């Protein structure tokens, strides 16, 4: 449960931090007509939604297995991360359209040092949130926390370029503001697509990664009594996998001995990080 409690904290901190940034960036961006700052504030609005999805998705995925969900609720992590990715892609398209319009038809920014201060506050706060999420994700692998962590990191770069565009406006160079707005939209879209692909793979029951697979196969092959491996398959259940293996044993081995061997292997494999449960089928040869 600690894994889910830590992920919940990441979601709550993300909501509070991004709400604060949305208010100050949106207000200052509109007052001083900075397209890059407005795009940055829209990104904060998307981040609030993402953090909220992290909180809700984590809450659902932490529920234990029941009669209707025999393998638990782990896939909720990927369903909600899919929602996050779609919202990011939609937002990026809207920002891109607005930024292109200002690039074509002009946008006179009213420079203010307040814009600079807001950028600096944003970078500091976002970097702190990134470090917190990174520490949690290092201890507890969670796609929702990973998505939030990457989002915080990207926001540091986004706001840094927003700061550059604002400083250019001090010298009456306004085109940079629109270009940065376009760049921000493309970065948000790229991140959204990356999260979408990762979530889609799990929801489509993609097999466990090759490194983990080979680790499991090596464990089985090195076990005394196992002659061969007939079949290996895996199904994702949230961030972990259900493993199915058919092993070949000596046909003269008693049923009790072969089942004891299978039970021992199941116990060892289930202890691995990415394994939810393992089922071993015995084939006498």
CATH architectural grouping of the largest domain: Up-down Bundle
CATH topology of the largest domain: Alpha-lytic protease prodomain-like
Q: What's the structural domain tally?
A: 2
Quickly give the structural class.
mainly alpha
Question: What does the radius of gyration come to?
Answer: 25 Å
Strand content: 5-15%
In whole angstroms, the N-to-C terminal distance is 43 Å
Q: Estimate the global geometry from the Cα principal axes.
A: elongated
Spatial ordering of strands, largest sheet: 1-2-3
The main pleated sheet reads as: 3 strands, mixed
Can you tell me about this structure?
This protein is mainly α. The chain has two domains: 202 residues, Cation efflux protein transmembrane domain (Alpha-lytic protease prodomain-like), CATH 1.20.1510; 75 residues, 2-Layer Sandwich (Alpha-Beta Plaits), CATH 3.30.70.1350. Helix content is 69%, strand content 11%. The chain contains eight helices and three strands, in the order αααααααββαβ. A three-stranded mixed sheet has the order 1-2-3. A hairpin with a 2-residue loop joins strand 1 and strand 2. Helix 2 packs antiparallel against helix 5, helix 4 runs antiparallel to helix 5 and helix 5 runs antiparallel to helix 6.
